Automatic annotation (TrEMBL):
[4Fe-4S] cluster binds at residues 114, 118, 121. The active site is at 94 (proton acceptor), 339 (s-methylcysteine intermediate). This is Probable dual-specificity RNA methyltransferase RlmN. It catalyses: adenosine(2503) in 23S rRNA + 2 reduced [2Fe-2S]-[ferredoxin] + 2 S-adenosyl-L-methionine = 2-methyladenosine(2503) in 23S rRNA + 5'-deoxyadenosine + L-methionine + 2 oxidized [2Fe-2S]-[ferredoxin] + S-adenosyl-L-homocysteine; adenosine(37) in tRNA + 2 reduced [2Fe-2S]-[ferredoxin] + 2 S-adenosyl-L-methionine = 2-methyladenosine(37) in tRNA + 5'-deoxyadenosine + L-methionine + 2 oxidized [2Fe-2S]-[ferredoxin] + S-adenosyl-L-homocysteine. The keyword rRNA processing applies. It holds the Pfam family RlmN_N. NCBIfam families: rRNA_mod_RlmN (TIGR00048). Specifically methylates position 2 of adenine 2503 in 23S rRNA and position 2 of adenine 37 in tRNAs. It comes from Winogradskyella marincola.
Amino acid sequence: MDVKKKDIRALTKDQLRDFFVSQGDKAFRGNQVYEWLWQKSAHSFEDMTNISLQTRQMLTDNFVINHIKVDQMQRSSDGTIKNAVRLHDDLIVESVLIPTPTRTTACVSSQVGCSLDCKFCATARLKRMRNLNPDEIYDQVVAIDNESRLYHGRPLSNIVFMGMGEPLMNYNNVLKAIDKITSPEGLGMSPKRIVVSTSGVPKMIKKMADDGVKFKLAVSLHSAIDDVRTSIMPFNATFPLKDLREALGHWYAKTKNRITYEYVVWRGINDRKKDVDALVEFCKFAPSKVNLIEYNPIDDGEFQQADYKALDMYVNILEANNITVTVRRSRGKDIDAACGQLANKNKA
Ligand code: SAH
């Protein structure tokens, strides 16, 4: 990468318009280039065919477009696609396309690696290398949208921030990316079709609520008992359940948006009745539903999916307490694309 040249996509539309005026051109040229960059996702200035050759050269001399590159695409037998995405500094993140009969969902990454230390997650072992910038997040969505059209004959319908990283530890950039995804000048998607999944950073959940965001919130809960949660998600010692609960109450009061709790049931960890009872109590705090997700093994057996009896107990007790619960099957396991398996395995 040429260090002297600026990343043109770091400029707002107004900054781009001002730049053209400073070059003695019309502000309108800024709109045209902006449209190429965002609506048409141009990878190079040469693609901008309604811009004069001379102007394209001037842009090439001054700027770069740090577009992501899909380095490797893997297709699962169940239709799931995993992209290994190369960033301008050669770091790699992964994103996933998950098709179902009624929707196509993009699962995108927000950080290279992750700063949190969930014991059951492969990404946690990579440690956090850096935050993704807004256009690197946006590009992942565009790449998946293109693949969805190509392989499934329909555009992307939903986005989940459940790839690598903790989105609320890269909040500003995630928000900017979502602004672009939902803006008519970007992809024009409804924020209601976007889910941000967090391991639960109370201060940031409150901030999101105060910022009036319109997307949905999912929390990776996995246990409603502090000791248990801290043993599998050690940062829970810093952000205990009491603080998380209070932040979620604030979220619901401000947004009136129901919260989804993601929850894996592991043998010998959270498969007792008292674990379910604690979850029921936690769910009473704010309107919510529970997604019981299948464990995707990443290690040599330290964690094991609980048996069906334990899952049935969860479903029965939650339903008896009028809490909506769904049991989710994993997708894309054969290509290491399922929850918690994203770890750049092929690039190791
Ligand atoms: N950092 C965010 C988003 C990334 S993880 C978060 O924690 O929510 C996306 C989901 O996959 C989370 O619910 C996470 O707890 C879950 N997950 C992580 N490792 C997993 C594994 N090995 N099997 C199943 N789910 C896993």
